Amino acid sequence: QSALTQPRSVSGSPGQSVTISCTGTSSDVGGYNYVSWYQQHPGKAPKLMIYDVSKRPSGVPDRFSGSKSGNTASLTISGLQAEDEADYYCCSYAGSWVFGGGTKLTVL
Amino acid sequence: QVQLQESGPGLVKPSQTLSLTCTVSGGSISSGDYYWSWIRQPPGKGLEWIGYIYYSGSTYYNPSLKSRVTISVDTSKNQFSLKLSSVTAADTAVYYCARELGGDYFDYWGQGTLVTVSS
User: Fold this and answer.
1) What is the pLDDT of residues B65-87, one digit of tens each?
2) 45-64 in chain A: CB under 8 A from chain B
3) How far does the CA of residue A81 sit from the closest CA of chain B (Å)?
4) What is the structure's pLDDT at B102?
5) Contact B46 A102 (CB under 8 A)
6) CA-CA distances (angstroms) from residue B94 to A10, B25, B72, B114?
7) How far is CA A73 from CA A54, A58, A80, A87, A101, in A?
8) Contact between A51 and B105 using a beta-carbon 8 Å cutoff
9) Which residues of chain A have a pLDDT value below 70?
10) Using CA of residue B28, residue B33, residue B36, residue B42, what is the dihedral sign?
11) Is the Cα dihedral A40, B61, B114, B78 positive or negative?
12) Which chain B residue is nearest to residue A49, measuring alpha carbons?
């Protein structure tokens, strides 16, 4: 299966909101509610931020939220903070697992 | 707190077999709720799922790598392992092991280990 499509980069100022999109097909994002999002800081392992499209694991700030419409999932980060600067990857179940290409978030 | 730790050679010659082991601590690999995955990330690139194993030994591999991948489990040591055969420079990556809640998400990851394929 092909990788999910994410913008290569997004940016925002502290306190603002940004949204990262993740576009797939009816065979992955559109077909299952098993979309998850991972945050990765340089040299570190990915960290689970959102699962089942919109659920947050314990310990993840409620500034992070997820949604899905059709074949596109979205991660929204509100009240941007400097520590949010990282790479973000979406992931969908598709019979197996497929990841997005990653989005670099820059906090200006 | 579950922890995963990858181990294995950091350098593999082209055409040889890459072998890595993931040791799980703080929880049992035999827990029926979880699958145990390998995921890789070439330098400067995105994540690619390689495959998973269940404690019973059942496996599922990424179709694009299936012909070269073998994942095995040793429940007595709380470990699972990856073998990738006939490697080329394109297999150079950071390899992560991760715990997967069956069909849902990856909640715990190892720190990753860089494997370079070079003569």
Assistant:
1) 999 999 999 999 999 999 999 99
2) 45-48, 51-52, 57
3) 23
4) 79
5) yes
6) 25, 21, 19, 4
7) 9, 21, 20, 16, 14
8) yes
9) 1
10) negative
11) positive
12) B107
**Distance between CA atoms of residues B37 and B79, nearest Å:** 12
* Closest to B92 in 3D by CA, of B8, B22, B19, B11: B11
* Residue from A1, A96, A99, A104 whose CB has the most chain B CBs within 10 Å, to mutate: A96
- Tokens for B75? 């429940």
Give A83: exposed, middle or buried? Use CB within 10 Å, 0-12, 13-18, 19+. exposed
Q: Determine phi and psi for B7, rounding to 5 degrees.
A: -150, 150
pLDDT, mean of residues B43-54: 96
Q: What is d(CA A84, CA A86) in angstroms, rounded to the nearest whole number?
A: 6
C-alpha span between A62 and A60 (Å, rounded): 6
Across the interface, do B104 and A89 touch by the CB < 8 Å criterion? no
Q: Flag whether residue B5 sits within 8 Å of chain A, measured between CB atoms.
A: no
